[in-house]
Design brief:
Length: 254
């Protein structure tokens, strides 16, 4: 890993909403080709971190650097260009109900390229095949199961061949078998596309399966970073309580 470049760097990241302090000095690096999973309880700020990485939120203090570029220094036009490096799988898949599957997958291509509908449909078909879906191009989102919607969302995330993939709770709402399918797809796409990945989740089975490193977010800071094995064997009482799902410990359940 020492030879890999830093693709994402969060440096002393602070963010509050009114009187509510959410991030209180987050420091984290993500290396090229690496899969980092951020774990932590609901409301701890995991989604806030993702929004900073993609430039939807600006920090109150600290920096977010993508390939060494500080997002806070960019014009809106340049920030829009940086965002084209990203693909994102949303927690609810976030498909557009009024358009077909292939149009959903090709939405960004239609917005940001001059490709014809035939070219976009061909790319959508290819990406759908990569996530294990064939013959669904003309279906509507309402015709799909929850697992199929997630896979369509994943196909859309990779349609622009991004350098960085972001995953917002990728297994939420799925049964254990479909969750395993999604986890396997995430790992497979990481290898096939050589992308850098950041996922947020509270699903420890998913975290262990897809992560090269896991970062535990607690009280606005990164409590511990380590390989899945290091996190599994952690002696930090905060990490131990969370990964084992225990009600008693330093993490308040109120």
């Amino acid at each position: 890993m020492s030879e890999q470049s830093v693709v994402i760097e969060l440096s002393d990241l602070h963010k509050s909403f009114g009187a509510h302090q959410v991030l209180e000095g987050v420091n984290l690096e993500v290396l090229s080709g690496e899969s980092v999973v951020i774990i932590g309880g609901s409301g701890t700020g995991k989604s806030v971190i993702l929004k900073h990485i993609i430039g939807l939120l600006a920090p109150d203090r600290g920096k977010v650097l993508i390939d060494g570029t500080d997002l806070a220094t960019l014009s809106e036009e340049r920030l829009s260009d940086i965002r084209k490096k990203f693909g994102m799988l949303f927690q609810s898949a976030a498909l557009f109900d009024s358009i077909s599957v292939w149009e959903n997958v090709g939405f960004a291509l239609r917005q940001h390229t001059r490709k014809s509908d035939a070219e976009i449909r061909a790319i959508a078909t290819q990406k759908l095949s990569m996530v294990g879906l064939k013959g669904v191009e003309d279906k509507m989102p309402s015709d799909l199961s929850g697992g199929m919607k997630k896979r369509v969302g994943l196909a859309r995330a990779i349609a622009m061949e991004p350098k960085i993939l972001l995953y917002d709770e990728p297994t939420t709402g799925l049964d254990p078998i479909m969750a395993d399918v999604i986890n396997n797809l995430i790992g497979d796409l990481k290898q096939r596309l050589s992308v850098t990945s950041v996922a947020i989740t509270h699903d420890m089975k998913s975290a262990y399966q897809i992560a090269d490193r896991i970062a535990m977010l607690y009280q606005g800071k990164i409590e511990q970073v380590g390989t899945p094995e290091e996190i599994r064997n952690s002696n930090d009482p905060v990490v131990v309580q969370f990964i084992n799902g225990r009600a008693s410990g330093p993490i308040s359940v109120l």
